């Protein structure tokens, strides 16, 4: 019997093209989600439950880790917008308001911004969206012989990746402590259920408008807050997601604490940057504390002043630049820097002074800059 190359008579891509025109959810190649339900978690946080298609399940092995996210592609008025949203919980985990359904996932969205408002207010049950499979490094490290304590710190909608992260850590027999700063306590029944199931789980819900809920006598995260937890901080892995002010206060508190002669508590911190899980670096001065610099757009013969990211400053000056996710993931904002230095606010790395490819959504000018735009 002869063997060798056998041409594919009907290309799989063509079959997929036909199938998606017959049924938009039935792609063999492209991961897609179909909206099944909406659930209000708080005044401004909405959970959306989706069914996954065959391509999604095949490419993701129907699995993801606690703390990961996915990119959702949302068409609005003929323009495709891409945004990243944290996954709520773990695969096959029925959340407290849901009946257990196979092949589903849930995200939680704060109803603000063009795309998020559209998803929470304009979409209909049954709507189909293209997406990427789950990704991101805001996850637990590989299990060690001796489980390490975990401290999760969140503010506002930064709580969403914590549901899966906390649950997975507890399933790994790790002790977990949660601090959540928000205007009002949310997800209280979920945390209470976890605490009843796992004795190693403690949580503190700080309603920033209610003095009676303050932890360690303070509305904000402080050194006293960390010490009051009674954790072996030198051995504790800290995961944080939330507003820049929360992250800065965490770094400040960590710098003020001496936990080991050879290591800093800063080394234990991991923050969520939607796909770029960043271990500690000094982010003070990364945006609003920067000195104003002049940015020249050579191709347009325009210039503007910037003390924050190049994209934000250009928009403030009424100049439209190409962009997509605004978080350094999609690279649609990438352009060529001709001269000058910029700082990447995700990694803290300062560029060279010459010709270089940069992303305007995560680059803050350190000197005057010339861009080939």
From TrEMBL:
<dbReference type="Pfam" id="PF00111">
    <property type="entry name" value="Fer2"/>
</dbReference>
<dbReference type="InterPro" id="IPR001433">
    <property type="entry name" value="OxRdtase_FAD/NAD-bd"/>
</dbReference>
<dbReference type="InterPro" id="IPR008333">
    <property type="entry name" value="Cbr1-like_FAD-bd_dom"/>
</dbReference>
<dbReference type="InterPro" id="IPR039261">
    <property type="entry name" value="FNR_nucleotide-bd"/>
</dbReference>
<dbReference type="Pfam" id="PF00175">
    <property type="entry name" value="NAD_binding_1"/>
</dbReference>
<dbReference type="Pfam" id="PF00970">
    <property type="entry name" value="FAD_binding_6"/>
</dbReference>
<protein>
    <submittedName>
        <fullName>2Fe-2S iron-sulfur cluster-binding protein</fullName>
    </submittedName>
</protein>
<feature type="domain" description="FAD-binding FR-type">
    <location>
        <begin position="28"/>
        <end position="141"/>
    </location>
</feature>
<dbReference type="InterPro" id="IPR017938">
    <property type="entry name" value="Riboflavin_synthase-like_b-brl"/>
</dbReference>
<dbReference type="InterPro" id="IPR050415">
    <property type="entry name" value="MRET"/>
</dbReference>
<dbReference type="InterPro" id="IPR001041">
    <property type="entry name" value="2Fe-2S_ferredoxin-type"/>
</dbReference>
<dbReference type="InterPro" id="IPR017927">
    <property type="entry name" value="FAD-bd_FR_type"/>
</dbReference>
<dbReference type="InterPro" id="IPR012675">
    <property type="entry name" value="Beta-grasp_dom_sf"/>
</dbReference>
<dbReference type="InterPro" id="IPR036010">
    <property type="entry name" value="2Fe-2S_ferredoxin-like_sf"/>
</dbReference>
């Amino acid at each position: 019997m002869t063997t060798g190359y056998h041409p594919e008579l009907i290309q799989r891509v063509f079959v997929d093209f036909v199938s998606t025109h017959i049924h938009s959810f039935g792609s063999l190649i492209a991961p897609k989600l179909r909206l099944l339900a909406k659930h209000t978690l708080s005044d401004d946080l909405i959970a959306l439950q989706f069914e996954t298609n065959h391509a999604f399940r095949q490419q993701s092995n129907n699995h993801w880790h606690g703390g990961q996210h996915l990119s959702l592609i949302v068409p609005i008025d003929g323009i495709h917008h891409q945004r990243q949203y944290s996954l709520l919980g773990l695969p096959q985990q029925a959340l407290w308001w849901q009946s257990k359904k196979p092949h589903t996932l849930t995200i939680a969205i704060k109803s603000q911004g063009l795309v998020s408002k559209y998803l929470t207010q304009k979409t209909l049950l049954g709507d189909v969206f293209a997406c990427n499979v789950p990704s991101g490094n805001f996850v637990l490290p590989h299990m060690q012989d001796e489980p390490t304590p975990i401290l999760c710190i969140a503010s506002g909608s930064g709580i969403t990746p914590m549901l899966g992260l906390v649950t997975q850590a507890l399933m790994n027999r790790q002790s977990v402590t949660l601090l959540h700063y928000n205007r009002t306590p949310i997800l209280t029944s979920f945390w209470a259920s976890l605490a009843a199931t796992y004795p190693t789980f403690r949580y503190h819900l700080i309603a920033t408008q209610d003095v009676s809920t303050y932890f360690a006598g303070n509305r904000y995260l402080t050194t006293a807050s960390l010490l009051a937890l009674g954790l072996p901080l030198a051995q504790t892995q800290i995961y944080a997601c939330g507003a820049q002010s929360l992250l800065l206060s965490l770094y400040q508190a960590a710098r003020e604490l001496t936990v080991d002669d050879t290591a800093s508590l800063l080394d234990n911190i991991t923050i969520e940057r939607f796909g770029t899980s960043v271990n500690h670096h000094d982010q003070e001065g990364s945006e609003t504390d920067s000195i104003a610099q002049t940015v020249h757009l050579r191709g347009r013969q325009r210039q503007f002043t910037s003390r924050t990211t190049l994209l934000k400053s250009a928009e403030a000056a009424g100049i439209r630049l190409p962009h997509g996710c605004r978080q350094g993931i999609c690279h649609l904002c990438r352009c060529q820097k001709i001269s000058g230095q910029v700082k990447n606010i995700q990694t803290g790395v300062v560029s060279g002074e010459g010709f270089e490819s940069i992303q305007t959504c995560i680059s803050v000018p350190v000197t005057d800059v010339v861009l080939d735009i």
